[in-house]
Amino acid sequence: MLEKIRLWIDLNSENLKGILLKLIPVLMIIILAAKFPMLLRDYYLERYDSEVPGVVDEIKKIQGIQETQEGSKIITRTYKVNYHFVLSDQEYKGEEEIHRGTLSLKERSIFDQMKIGDTIRVKFKGEKPEKSRIMIK
Predict the structure, then answer these.
(1) What are the distances in angstroms from CA 14 to CA 9, 17, 18, 22?
(2) Which of 14, 29, 38, 104 yields a CA-CA distance of 20 to 30 A from 134?
(3) 57 to 3, 82, 133: CA distances (angstroms)
(4) What DSSP character marks residue 12?
(5) pLDDT, tens digit, for every residue of 68-115?
């Protein structure tokens, strides 16, 4: 039986190489498509230049169902975080809604364990602290 398998592999080795050469780019595209939302979020966060500690005021885990035009349903899961931070004796409040698809597993576990009063890192552009974002990494 083992000899038959080896013989089959020897006879079909060119076909197997062709299949593998076609399969590798497809797998790379699938992996990149899965990572794209996380990479996009990281890119936008790097544009913010200032960072301060903030405090979580409220966190909600929201799950919704959306219907597409074709009639299928999509389940969306987001985290809605209300927070505040102090800068130059002035308090700023912020609110951010983060889709779970933009988070890695480690970041999701951090959001799952987050509660009111936890300290977070907040990034913002130097001249506009009211437009702030939560930094997890």
Answers:
(1) 9, 5, 6, 13
(2) 29
(3) 68, 5, 15
(4) T
(5) 778 787 777 889 999 999 888 888 898 988 888 888 888 888 888 999
- The conformation of residue 127, written as its DSSP 8-state character, comes to T
**Pairing label, strands 128-135, 119-125:** antiparallel
Pull the structure tokens for residue 18.
């062709």
Question: What percentage of the chain reaches a pLDDT higher than 70?
Answer: 97
Contact status, residue 62 vs residue 77, Cβ threshold 8 Å: yes
Mean pLDDT in the chain? 82
CATH 2.40.50 fits 49-135, yes or no: yes
Six token digits for residue 82: 């209300």
The pLDDT assigned to 11 comes to 67
What's residue 116's pLDDT?
92
Q: Tokens 């999701």 appear where? A: 108
* Contact in structure between 122 and 69 (CB atoms under 8 Å): no
> Running DSSP on this structure, what letter comes out for residue 101?
G
